[in-house]
Amino acid sequence: MIVILTISGALLATAAALLIFRVLTGPNSLDRLVAMDCILALTLCGIAVWAVYSRDTSIVPALVAFSLVGFISSVSIARFRVRDE
């Protein structure tokens, strides 16, 4: 199980690095918004992998709170986004 958790952590870190590149070089603000939302999802997955590794179930309410904050922030930014020129 340790090998699977290590591989999943490495894949999550690789995906996060690629998404950070997209945030820094995104052609417009909507691409950056999608990349930031994906980074939040990867963070949630990383916390879930850590919860499995540590066998700690007290992290689950934090996962729910982070996902709620991510949803609300994505919707509000998409709603009030100014068009790129």
From TrEMBL:
It comes from the Bacteria. Coiled coil: none annotated. The chain crosses the membrane at residues 33-53, 60-80. One of its GO terms (molecular function) is sodium:proton antiporter activity. Belongs to the CPA3 antiporters (TC 2.A.63) subunit F family. The keyword Oxidoreductase does not apply. It holds the Pfam family MrpF_PhaF. It comes from Rhodococcus rhodochrous KG-21. It is a multi-pass membrane protein. Its main location: membrane. It is found in: Cell membrane. The keyword Cell membrane applies. This is Monovalent cation/H+ antiporter subunit F. InterPro entries: MrpF/PhaF-like. GO terms for cellular component: plasma membrane. Keywords: Cell membrane, Membrane, Transmembrane, Transmembrane helix, Transport.
